[in-house]
Amino acid sequence: MADIKVVVHGALGRMGQEVLRAVTNAPDMQLVGAADGRATPGTLMIPDGSAEIPISNSLADALSDAQVVVDFSSAAGAMSVLRTASAHRVNAVVGSTGLSDDNFAETKKLADDNSVGIIIAPNFAMGAVLMIHLAEAAAKFFDYVDLTEMHHEAKIDAPSGTAMAIARALVAGKSGQFTAPKAQEELVEGARGGDYEGVVIHSARMPGLMAHHEVVFGALGQTLTIRHDSINRESFMPGVTMAIREVVNRKGLTVGLDKIMGL
């Protein structure tokens, strides 16, 4: 079987660099191009130093030989990538968060109208996906839950996209709201965190962190804790390469890595 031809968008960023390495090391994939808004058009040495690939500041210019484009940028950046890629009949794997319901509706139409595959996931770490699955299964047995997410100081959204996916899974698993006690006297405004259907969410941002999520359920005389930690960006790459292999065979929009993990 021929190698899957991949273009990485945002190739000069930290996640983009990690995706370049993962695709280079995958035996069934070939890097054929890169794009980044900060790039000077020319060539880019691939991580193992074995070859150079074209790089452009325009994604459209990088797609001529591609089967899949991978994007980790922002919600606005992802939508631009999806519009461009689908118009060129190129499949897409997207890890950007913050997409709205309208964005998902537009993405589904783009995939269907252009007969391409699009996979969007709030988190590509398989352990995080399993955490969401386990939290949803446990939710119906508890009335109280706190969710804490911790990320590096440069993360732009709070709560994280993964935290929101966990919160939605918790509410779905319980089939209703949790109980979120209010402090009778809140000495610092917001000290109890945000409230999503009774799921109390706390966000931390500081250097030294990558991506960490912890769910703590409470009941009489007991707590149950489910936690996942991504120590570095390598943790996301097995999920990314899994999605690249799947998207070339799956038309339409798929949201969540769980759909291709069989959960």
Number of strands: 13
Indicate the CATH topology of the largest domain: Rossmann fold
What average pLDDT do the residues reach?
A: 94
Question: What low-confidence regions span 5 or more consecutive residues with pLDDT below 50?
Answer: none
Apparent shape? elongated
What's the CATH C level of the largest domain?
Alpha Beta
Describe the biggest sheet? Answer: 8 strands, mixed
Helix content: 25-40%
> How would you spell out the order of helices and strands?
EHEEEHEHEHEHEHEEEEHEH
Q: Beta fraction of the residues? A: 25-35%
At CATH level 2, the architecture of the largest domain is 3-Layer(aba) Sandwich
Count of separate DSSP helical elements: 8
CATH superfamily of the largest domain: NAD(P)-binding Rossmann-like Domain
The N- to C-terminal Cα distance equals: 28 Å
Looking across the biggest beta sheet, what order are the strands in?
3-4-2-1-5-6-7-13
Structural category: alpha/beta
Question: What is the radius of gyration computed over CA atoms, rounded to a whole number of angstroms?
Answer: 20 Å
Q: How many domains?
A: 2
Description:
By secondary structure, the protein is α/β, with parallel strands linked by helices. It folds into 2 domains: 4-120 and 234-261, Rossmann fold; 126-231, 2-Layer Sandwich (Dihydrodipicolinate Reductase, domain 2), CATH 3.30.360. Helices cover 33% and strands 28% of the residues. The model has no long low-confidence stretch (mean pLDDT 94).
